[in-house]
Design goal:
10 helices, eight-stranded mixed sheet, two-stranded antiparallel sheet, alpha/beta, about 40% helix
């Protein structure tokens, strides 16, 4: 009887992608060998590095050395302005971490999922430069310039397929473990300047004080907060719809509610990934034993 091929689908999620390292650590400790990895955006970076043989200790060190200053260096403005940054610093960091590899020569099957900007459809990058494929998958719209890769003008994979379970199956996985680190919109603490109720002022319902009424429960978030939350809502709802259409065999969702990771502090994210993977491990081991 042929051994079932085990696939891992890693979602986009920015700094929360550090949880992917914790999940991989638990799988390794349990002796679970992966045959296939598919990742979008940060999931592509972590999954691609692991597929290329980068040790988890080094991935952990990379995350723990991350700082706001280091992230800022990768976001220097560029011209022409099709994105805030050219992403060249990302390329250099990826090359230092991974080296020069072709995806088709990796010891396991791997796909970095990007989005074709012209068609709007997800595209699975399974050949060519691993660094360039990951860079393409990381092309957050507006933040990094799009990348031409194998005839596709690529932006962030999270735009069209934030948790690529279907891609892992297409690569031949019989059992797919999916790790969802996307932000739940309700977890985001929106903030902004106090909202002034001009209607109260115009109608004279401000008790004659002449001062606009400020409701402490209301606020006016900045355009950046609005756009960021819009992206959060879109990706999470898209992910949920895709999971209904193509559910994984095991779904791992780390709990970040107590201490969400950020780029200046990611250790909590790695720990959340470990804890979630340990909770899912008995179910996974039962499935693999049948």
């Amino acid at each position: 009887m042929n051994k079932a091929k085990i696939g891992l689908a890693l979602s986009s999620g920015g700094a929360r992608g550090s949880a992917h390292v914790g999940v991989l650590r638990v799988l390794e400790e349990a002796g679970i060998t992966l045959d296939v990895i598919a990742g979008a955006s940060m999931g592509a970076e972590i999954g691609g590095a692991y597929a290329a043989g980068v040790p988890l200790t080094r991935l952990t060190d990379m995350w723990q050395s991350t700082s706001l200053a280091r992230v800022a260096k990768s976001l220097l403005p560029t011209l022409p302005w099709s994105g805030w940054s050219s992403g060249n610093a990302i390329r250099r960091n990826l090359r230092d971490l991974i080296g020069d590899h072709l995806i088709e020569e990796l010891p396991m099957l791997f796909a970095a999922v990007a989005t074709d900007l012209e068609s709007g459809l997800p595209v699975s990058l399974t050949q060519g430069s691993l660094v360039e494929a990951i860079r393409a998958s990381l092309s957050v719209p507006g933040l990094f310039t799009p990348v031409w890769f194998q005839g596709h003008l690529c932006i962030d994979g999270g735009v069209s397929n934030p948790l690529p379970v279907d891609t892992a199956r297409t690569l031949g996985a019989d059992i797919v473990i999916a790790v969802d680190v996307l932000v739940e919109p309700s977890e985001v603490k929106l903030s902004g300047i106090p909202a002034i109720d001009l209607r109260e002022l115009r109608t004279g319902n401000n008790r004659g004080s002449g001062t606009p009424v400020i409701d402490p429960r209301r606020y006016a978030p900045s355009v950046f907060n609005v756009l960021l939350q819009m992206s959060t809502v879109f990706q999470k709802r898209l992910c949920e719809a895709r999971l209904v259409q193509d559910p994984p065999d095991v779904l791992i969702r780390p709990d970040f509610s107590e201490d969400p990771p950020c780029y200046s502090r990611v250790g909590c994210g790695i720990k959340a990934g470990e804890q979630a993977a340990r909770r899912a491990l008995p179910e996974l081991l039962r499935m693999l034993s049948t």
